[in-house]
Amino acid sequence: MEEIILLSHGNGGESTRRLIEEEILKYFGNDILNQLLDSAIFDIKGRLAFTTDSFVVSPIFFNGGDIGKLSIYGTINDLSVMGAKPLYLSVGLIVEEGLSFEEFRKILLSMKAASEECGIKIITGDTKVVERGKGDKIFINTSGIGIIETSLDWRGRGIEQGDIVIINGGIGEHGLCIMIQRLGIKVGEEVKSDLAPLNSLVLPLLKISNNIKFMRDPTRGGVAGVLNEIAQKYSVEIEIEEEKIPIKPWVRSASEILGIDPLYSANEGKVIIIASRKDEDKIMSFLKNHPLGKDAEIIGEIKGKGNRVYLKTKLGTRRILDPLKRDLLPRIC
Amino acid sequence: MEEIILLSHGNGGESTRRLIEEEILKYFGNDILNQLLDSAIFDIKGRLAFTTDSFVVSPIFFNGGDIGKLSIYGTINDLSVMGAKPLYLSVGLIVEEGLSFEEFRKILLSMKAASEECGIKIITGDTKVVERGKGDKIFINTSGIGIIETSLDWRGRGIEQGDIVIINGGIGEHGLCIMIQRLGIKVGEEVKSDLAPLNSLVLPLLKISNNIKFMRDPTRGGVAGVLNEIAQKYSVEIEIEEEKIPIKPWVRSASEILGIDPLYSANEGKVIIIASRKDEDKIMSFLKNHPLGKDAEIIGEIKGKGNRVYLKTKLGTRRILDPLKRDLLPRIC
To answer: Which of A139, A230, B181, B221 could, after both became Cys, cross-link A94 (CB 3.0–4.6 A)?
Structure first.
């Protein structure tokens, strides 16, 4: 086969068939996908979660992951934080003419490994090729379907004064890692994205506590972005304490050099959890014993009615933490 | 608001929130989408169909439609030809910095109208912005979920010798229209894409005949492509008659000028139907009375075991109709 992806791989004829059958099915193949029907068919009954995300991250390979792995974990995480067990994914590839098969296969292989790790199946897909200069190597859309067991559905559990705000580990790592790599700065191996699938963390957690009231993965917009969304949506005032926020030393250095607050930097393996204080011990002990939660911290609490987020600084002052207004680098995820 | 889409509209902060709440929700808003959760939630029971498609057509506005309408109908059609009633769609937008809000809104409005026409809801979405020169105005991914009623599930109805091959109207219109417009040739208003949603045609048809054995919309790769897929997948020989194939006069002229066989040109409102001959009258009479089927024709039949497609020409000769091997223009859909 040719060494680079050509426009003919997207024309719907023989080259497309070969690309799909000899490359894509080799990695993703399963009983449903292999049928290559216009739609995948499956039987199901229950409360479903459905989500979509397009991934346009640049560079496509970065410390701690690649666009393929990100596209699987990202959608797994959007399902998981809703309390849904991820079941099925679709994959839509938009490839720029000229992408090498070596890179293409590396991405497919990474997606395959990530899917298997999370126990999900890719059951339907689509591949398009655009001319050189009309895309950027590869964009990946994944849409996901998950199922919510009754015990994992927290809707209606109201957020109220005294509830605690938890994060499962250090903030800002994905965004700052991508920015540093985009600048071509040579870095040590501790500098890497926190990219991780959250299903194994949040789904069991929802089973041990009935008092979790909200979860969201703070991707674009960072922790500050998600907290502001919560404050506005549920009309609550949130206060977080600077001192409690877990930040790795390299993130702190990078954020000072680049002038970017880690609170606004994207995460790809973190979840913000709002829960009743009465389950604090149960939740924190579960998190601390999980590989993705060992650096978990209670970073703040719900102060009452309102619509703002406040940061209590190390100096003891209190300032409003606005949602992101400035431009950060685009294409972090 | 700014007159063009900026990178900041994709940063996950305040501009993104405004873009989503003030623009996207204005057009797509419904009870599920408005919740802006990480995943949309709905209850369901049954046999589901799930499909995905990315749309990268250029130009984004063309005679007979635009990329927005195409992205809705395309996925509606992929669900419908499986016998699934389309219910829910996701929409993933990848916008190139610099797209005008005027064009952006025109596309959203077109998607809204198409969704309403087909009775489906857009329940989850995602918007990314890429730098100028890293995309091409707008790419749209839609993934769709539909439900298959038992009576609409034809799996297991084997294709056999004597079965008829039907198409619901003139071939090659979408592909040739896009190619002509790409070349900047000035054309009359009869030159337009056949873009149409097939749900109102194929779902009732499946209810009136239990002897439909296969349906597919011949998009990329055209009628020749789909027939070759069927021949290979079901190990049958198919023969179609040149004389029976409906082709509009402008398509014939365009195909002669451009040197492109309409049999390989994409369609966006056509369906190939394989059915038992005993329901010929029932099926043809239904099709002929439907606005999307009035030019329907029986174009060929299943000749027995095999794996090839033959074309009986007007001169009475018989030649193999291969799947597409050459390059056509990319980005037809």
So the answer is: A139
Is there a shared CATH topology between the A7-152 domain and the A164-320 domain? no
* Single-letter code of the amino acid located at A11: N
pLDDT digits (tens, 9 = 90+) for A142-171: 999 999 988 788 776 899 999 999 999 999
Report whether pLDDT(B191) > 70. yes
> A85 to chain B nearest CA, in Å?
12
CATH class of segment(s) A7-152: alpha beta
Q: Of B43, B57, B126, B227, which to mutate for an interface test with A (greatest number of A Cβ within 10 Å)?
A: B126
Residue A146: DSSP 8-state: E
- Cβ neighbours of B90 in A, within 8 Å: 50-52, 143
Q: Which residues of B touch A220 (CB under 8 A)?
A: 10-13, 16
Which parts of chain A have pLDDT scores under 50? Answer: none
Total H helices, total E strands in chain B: 9, 13
- For chains A and B, count residue pairs whose Cβ atoms are closer than 8 Å: 260
Break chain A into its structural domains and give their ranges: 7-152, 164-320
**HEC per residue, A67-102:** HHHHHHHHHHHHHHCCCEEEEEEEEEEEEECCCEHH
Fold of B164-320: Phosphoribosyl-aminoimidazole Synthetase; Chain A, domain 2 (3.90.650)
